[in-house]
Inverse folding.
């Protein structure tokens, strides 16, 4: 998908800006914020490299890093990143069962980096 | 993610300026490649800075191993631009096809009757003289320029500016004969053979269509080809034909 997308990062400029703007606004409102980014993919991963999700310490999030199957895990893991400030690099393999759930014809793999936005 | 770098990246994005965010994923150390250079705490290996520039030029975010470090280069580029000189009949489908391909489009035409809101709803219309308009728009290496008036009064001044810019694609509507006289005029105006050689004319891939939408498709196909494969491909295609 990323290869043929309209923007370098696999999401439109409008999407990328909306995620950054939301992260900025959350931080300005005093919330703890982390950003998760797809940094590598293999097979038919649902979102391209550069896709992002911003999340808060109270569990709100915008953006997406998959077709919905790993967002829950990313938000949970992201809250730990906000708490201890240590970045995390997560590997997700999408099993055929899960792949069916998100509408993929075959399994994909992706790697997601999560980091805290310092206040 | 350092607070000051995050703020700077958001600000550059808001101004539609390019930025590459560089992060070492094991430590979380980060830098920005901005139009002013590299910013960030600590030394960034020169190989990584070079890779970031490369990633920016190719519009491709990617990860990169360097010794026992693991980097991610995140390219944030503004949309590529398509500047069209001449609000003519081919321009109408070209505007739509260009927008679908992700380009931010400007149409230059000082003839008020052509560049009207009714004919180009929602398009950025510029009614300045083409040379002034082109000077102000500053085509860069993410800009394609297309001239469609085939009126030398309008096309040539725009071309004189565009041919001296870094525009990655310049194409001109007109037959081989029209192009031959264009080359003569531009040579007389002081442009070098190398500069004039950047022009794709007759414009567009040879698809055989003659309807305005078909010509627009041929133009957009050529822009896409030059963007991804470079201008050399065209020569090869002709040689093979």
């Amino acid at each position: 998908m990323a290869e043929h997308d309209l923007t370098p990062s696999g999401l439109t400029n409008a999407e990328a800006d909306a995620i950054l703007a939301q992260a900025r606004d959350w931080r300005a409102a005093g919330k703890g914020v982390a950003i998760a980014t797809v940094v590598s993919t293999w097979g038919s991963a649902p979102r391209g490299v550069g896709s992002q999700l911003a999340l808060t310490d109270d569990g709100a999030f915008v953006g997406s890093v998959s077709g919905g199957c790993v967002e829950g895990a990313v938000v949970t893991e992201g809250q730990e990143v906000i708490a201890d400030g240590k970045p995390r690099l997560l590997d997700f393999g999408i099993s055929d069962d899960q792949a069916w759930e998100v509408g993929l014809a075959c399994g994909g793999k992706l790697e997601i980096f999560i980091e805290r936005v310092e206040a | 993610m350092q607070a000051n770098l995050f703020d700077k990246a958001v600000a550059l994005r808001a101004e539609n300026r390019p930025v590459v965010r560089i992060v070492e994923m094991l430590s979380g150390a980060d830098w920005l490649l901005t139009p002013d250079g590299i910013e960030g705490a600590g030394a960034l290996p020169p190989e990584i800075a070079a890779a970031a520039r490369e990633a920016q030029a190719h519009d491709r975010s990617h990860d990169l191993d360097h010794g026992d470090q693991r980097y991610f280069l995140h390219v944030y580029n503004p949309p590529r631009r398509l500047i069209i000189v001449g609000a003519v009949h081919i321009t109408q489908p070209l505007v739509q096809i260009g927008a679908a391909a992700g380009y931010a489009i400007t149409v230059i035409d000082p003839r008020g009757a052509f560049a009207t809101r009714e004919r180009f709803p929602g398009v950025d219309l510029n009614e300045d003289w083409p040379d002034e308009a082109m000077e102000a728009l500053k085509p860069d290496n993410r800009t394609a320029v297309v001239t469609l008036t085939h009126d030398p009064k309008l096309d040539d001044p725009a071309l004189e500016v565009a041919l001296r810019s870094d525009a990655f694609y310049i194409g001109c509507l007109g037959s081989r004969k029209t192009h031959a006289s264009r080359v003569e005029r531009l040579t007389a105006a002081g442009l070098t053979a190398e500069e004039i050689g950047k022009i794709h004319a007759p414009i567009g891939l040879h698809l055989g269509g003659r309807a305005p939408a078909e010509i627009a498709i041929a133009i957009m196909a050529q822009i896409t080809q030059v963007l991804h494969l470079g201008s050399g491909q065209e020569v090869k295609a002709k040689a093979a034909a």
Notes: Chain B touches chain A through 30 residues (CB under 8 Å).
